[in-house]
Amino acid sequence: MEVVVPPDAEIIASVVNGDIDAFTVLVQRYRDLCFRFALRILGNRDDAEEALQDAFVRAYRALPACRDRARFGAWLYQILVNECRTRATRTARRDRHLVDVTPDVADPASHEDSAVSEEIEYALAQLVPEQREVFLLRYVEELGYDEIAEITGVGVSALKMRAKRGCERLRELLEGVVR
Amino acid sequence: MEHDGDEPSREDAEFARQLGSILRTAESPRLGFDERVRAAIQDAQRSQTPQAAPSAATVLGLRPRVTPIAAWRRRRSVTLPPAAWGALAAGFAAIVSLGTLSIARRASMMPQAPGGTYGVRAQPARQAVAAAPSHDTVYVVRFVLTDASARTVSLVGDFNAWAKRATPLVAVKPGVWSAQVALPAGRHEYAFVVDGKHWVADPASERLADDFDTPSSIVTVGTD
What we know:
CATH superfamily of the largest domain in chain A: RNA polymerase sigma factor, region 2, helix turn helix motif
Shape of chain A: elongated
Largest interface: A-B, 49 and 38 residues
Number of helices of chain A: 8
CATH topology of the largest domain in chain A: Rna Polymerase Sigma Factor, Chain: A
Number of strands of chain A: 0
Radius of gyration of chain B: 23 Å
Largest sheet of chain A: none
Radius of gyration of chain A: 18 Å
Structural class of chain A: mainly alpha
Distance between the termini of chain B: 74 Å
Strand content of chain B: 15-25%
CATH architecture of the largest domain in chain A: Orthogonal Bundle
Oligomer: heterodimer
Shape of chain B: elongated
Number of domains of chain A: 2
Order of helices and strands of chain A: HHHHHHHH
Strand content of chain A: under 5%
Helix content of chain A: 55-70%
Order of helices and strands of chain B: HHHHHEEEEEEEEE
Structural class of chain B: alpha+beta
Distance between the termini of chain A: 46 Å
C-alpha cells in the first residue's frame, strides 16, 4: 500500500479554498515540533500549549498571506516565536522556570536522565530570553543561522553572538552535570 | 555591542550540541489539543464575522441531516449577533440554542451553562426554544456537559447513528464540554459518552431508558 503525504503547499491550497479540515493535517504535522520549542522557551506546559494554540489560530487566519507555502514550517515558527516572546513578557513576573516534567520514577535510569534534563532546563531558564531562543533553534531544532535569522528577524552576526554568550553561560552552569 | 563573526568556540558548540541532543526528546501537547485548536479557530471566526448576516440561502441551505464536520464547516451561518438573529427570525429562519446542564457522576456542580459566544445564549432549558419554525429549517442545538474528570466526551444520538466517534465535544473551559449540532425539527434521542465507555443521560432533559436500561435523553426542537 502506498501512503501519499501531501506537501504543505497542497494542503494550504485546500485550506485557502475552503477545506477547513485540511488545516488539522498541518496542526498534526507541526504540533509536536513546535510544542517542544514552546515548552523549552516558556518553561511550562500550560503556557506552551496556549502559545502554540494561539500560534495555530493566527496562522490559520493569516494563511492566505503565506507567500511561500512550501516553507510553511518556517513561517509557522515565526508566528510561534512572536507568540512565545509576547507570552514570556506577559508572564515574566511569574517565577515558573522549571518544566513540569513527570519523570518515570519506576525506572532508575530514566529517573537519572530526568534529573539531568531538569538541571539543563534550569540552566536554560537562567539565560536571557534572546540567548535561550537562539540556543534552542540552533542546537535543539538544529536550524541554520540563516533560517534562524528568517524566523527571528535578527541578523546572523547578532545571532552568533547570542549563541556564543548562551553557550558560555550554559557551560558555566552545567560543568560537571553534563560530560 | 555584538560583533560580526563572533560565534561559539568549538568546545562550547560541542557542549551545546550535547545539551541539544538531551533536550531533543519528543514532547506532545496534552490529549485533545487538536480539538482545542479547532474550537479556538471556530471562536476566532465567530468573532471575525459577527456583523455579516448570512443570506437566506445560507441559512435555508442547511440540510436536515448533517455530519459533525459539515456542521462545523457551516458554522458561520449561525454565528450572528442578536440583532441579526431577530431580523432573520421574523422571516424565514430560526435557531434553537439548548444549553443542557448536565452533572455527570463525577462532575462538580456548575450552576449554569457556559456563556455562549453565539447570538443566542445557552439556556438551562429542558427542551429547545423555537422561533418561527419551518419544515426546511434546521436548528443548531448546543449540547453542554460539565464533567471535571472526563478525558473525552462525545455525543451520540439518533442523528448520528449513535456513533461514539462521530460528534466529540470540545472542552471550552476546564471541565466544560460543548458541541453544537444542526438538527431537523422533531424529537431526538441522545446521550453523552464519557471517556469512551460511560453512557450518561442529560439530567436537565427528559430522560428515557430503553429495553436494556441504557440511559438517554430527549430533545425536541422546532415545536412550540
